[in-house]
Specification:
CATH architecture of the largest domain: Sandwich
Shape: elongated
Number of strands: 25
Structural class: mainly beta
Number of domains: 3
Largest sheet: 6 strands, mixed
Distance between the termini: 61 Å
Order of helices and strands: HEEEEEEEEEEEEEEEEEEEEEEEEE
Strand content: over 45%
CATH superfamily of the largest domain: Immunoglobulins
């Protein structure tokens, strides 16, 4: 009987813990505090950053903007974010906006506000960047750059440079015409990059450049498939590893048992190869590095040990 009572107690404790994981705390009565913009504010900047304070147990925030009323359902923006701020682009006009916090089981009441956007000096405007966001990591060479349309902009100038950030001699300068708000660019080699954008109006005025943002073009990690770490294998030794898109070749390194001294390298265009003349009964380490289409080394695997059977 004591054992049964003990098991029932454990079951109850488990159920209570599970309930805490399954059922989120309600945020229905939580206060959502908005820091900016103030209600009925008038601005001459075409980009407005909405900022608010975090609500405990909220997992996302929904911001809606319209220029008539919310009953029509004609939203200019209806966006959900997990951060506590978001920047949106506007053209001159009057707008209503509302914001609420949400989780999977409840939401707060909407916080309502109005914003009045007046025509401003185009040379003091900045484009609102959408992607790639700061610190984005890409494992493909084709990267999409996109931004919010800036009022009265007809052309956009994008500059991409290496980590120097000064843009005195940018690696790429692209002109995007016809008020388009995105472009795909093939980055020729892996590395760290900065990018920025400015707009040119229909009358030829130039906006300010956006603050430079970083993105990284890198390879995915290489997983060594065979021989596994600590494996004992027969000669000839067959090596295989996970394939990576957009690579020119792979370089295989064989090390002595000290895992430092390289005794053999082999460059191949597939993700497997074999070596027949390794000494029997000896222990080795191996690793693989991927080379991109320009021959630059990218990701490397971990160093793994194996022994050739006598």
């Amino acid at each position: 009987m004591k054992y049964i009572g003990y098991m029932i107690s454990l079951f109850c404790l488990f159920m209570l813990a599970s309930c805490g994981l399954i059922f989120e705390k309600s945020i229905k009565n939580a206060d959502l505090v908005v820091d900016s913009p103030a209600d009925s504010v008038t601005i001459t900047q075409y980009t407005q950053t909405f900022m608010w304070q975090d609500v405990s147990y909220a997992t996302r925030y929904r911001l809606q903007v319209c220029n008539d009323n919310f009953h029509s359902g004609n939203y200019i923006y209806d966006t959900t974010v997990t951060a506590t701020q978001v920047a949106l682009g506007f053209q001159p006009g009057e707008y209503e906006w509302r914001l609420r916090a949400e989780n999977s089981s409840s939401e707060t009441a909407f916080h309502y506000g109005k914003i009045y956007v007046k025509k401003g000096d185009f040379t003091q405007q900045k484009v609102t960047v959408k992607e790639p966001a700061a610190e984005t990591i890409s494992t493909t060479s084709s990267i999409k750059f996109s931004w919010e349309a800036l009022y009265d902009a007809q052309t956009y100038i994008i500059e991409i440079d290496t980590i120097t950030e000064d843009f005195s001699d940018p690696m790429f300068t692209d002109t995007v015409k016809n008020a388009l708000t995105s472009i795909k660019k093939v980055i020729p080699r892996r590395g760290d990059y900065w990018w920025r954008i400015k707009a040119i109006s229909s009358s030829g005025e130039e906006s300010l450049y956006t603050a430079p943002q970083t993105f990284y073009y890198t390879m995915t990690d290489i997983d060594l498939l065979a021989p596994k770490n600590g494996a004992k294998t027969s000669a000839p030794v067959s090596f295989s590893w996970s394939a990576i898109d957009d690579v020119k070749s792979y370089k295989l390194y064989i090390y002595q048992s000290d895992s430092v001294t390289v005794i053999r390298t082999q460059t191949v265009t597939t993700n497997s190869t074999s070596i027949s003349d390794l000494d029997l009964g000896r222990t080795y380490f191996w690793t693989v590095t991927a080379l991109d289409n320009n021959g630059y080394p990218g990701s490397s695997s971990q160093r793994t040990k194996f022994t050739v059977n006598p």
